[in-house]
Amino acid sequence: MNLELSHFSSAVLFAVFASVVFGITQRNSSREMIRYGLYCFAMFVGGVIVAGWVMWILRR
Amino acid sequence: MANSPTKTEEQPKAATAPAPITTMSVVVPALAWFIPGAGHLIQKRWVRGVLLMVSVVAMFILGLAMQGHVYKPNGGDILDILGFVGDVGAGGLYILARANDWGQAAIAHATADYGSKYLIVAGLLNFLAVADAYHIAIGKKS
Q1: Torsion angle of C-alpha atoms A45, A38, B36, B56, degrees rounded to 10
Q2: Which residues of A touch B (CB under 8 A)?
Q3: Residue A21 and residue B131: Cβ atoms within 8 Å?
Q4: Are B78 and B114 in contact (CB under 8 A)?
Q5: A–B CB contacts, 8 A cutoff, strictly below
Q6: Quick one: three-class SS letters along chain B?
């Protein structure tokens, strides 16, 4: 099996799995877990988009 | 408030007191390392256990599918040593991958490099799951 994902889809999948684990392990109540998981996901994906634009600007 | 100074003096002692060694506090981390998510499942945290298992196993399988590299025990380059430490966190999945000689192809394209990172992070996330399962076992977390 040879899976070829784009950089963005790899980063989004990574963000999903890492956020789930971070949410469960770093907070105590279910509500806090969901909130923190979503926060981590937003930070991961937001970081990817910001880094992408920074690299685009640096290349210009 | 004559009692308040006594209470504040007692609090640090209680906070630093070592957790009692119970069967669960030994079995849970070992099981959680060997089978991702099992540390939570054995303590009846069904949803958390399943989510952790799916996340770690999916990351590991995707890493292998992307032709990621599975690191062997080594004493060479520091990044290779750290790669091994990350990979070994996946427990049974790592043993299975090594036994079948998976993830030994040369990294020839960017996707394979992402795959290597997926494998390492799957192991590191499982270390977090192990610590969380241990905290539940000793009563530090509900």
Answers
A1: -20
A2: 1-5, 7, 10, 13-14, 16-18, 20-22, 24-25, 28
A3: no
A4: no
A5: 59
A6: CCCHHHHHHHHHHHHHCCCCCCHHHHHHHHHHHHCCCHHHHCCCCHHHHHHHHHHHHHHHHHHHHCCCCCCCCCCCCHHHHHHHHHHHCCCHHHHHHHHCCCCCCCCCCHHHHHHHHHHHHHHHHHHHHHHHHHHHHCCCCC
Distance CA B20, CA B18 (A): 6
**Whole-structure pTM value:** 0.88
The token pair at B58 is 């999916």
pLDDT tens-digit series, residues B8-62: 455 555 556 777 789 999 999 999 999 999 999 999 999 999 999 999 999 999 9
Give the three-state DSSP class for A60. coil
The residue to which tokens 């002692």 are assigned:
B13
Instruction: Answer yes or no: do A25 and B129 touch at CB < 8 A.
Output: yes
Measured over the CA atoms of residue A35, residue A39, residue A45 and residue A46, the dihedral's sign is: positive
